[in-house]
Amino acid sequence: MRKNSKFIISLFLSIIFGTIIFIIIVRVFLFNSGFFSSTTPQEFTYLNSISIENYTKDSISLIHDIMDLIKSRTEPYHSSENDNETMILIDTILYSPNLNKIAFFVITKNSNQKFELLGGGELPEYPSDQFHFDAYCFLGEKKDPETKYHLAWMRVLNISNFHSYEEASQRIRSKYFNELASIQNREGESIYKYNLDDRRFWIGPAWEKNFLSVEIYENDN
Question: What mean pLDDT is predicted for residues 16-41?
Answer without folding.
Answer: 53
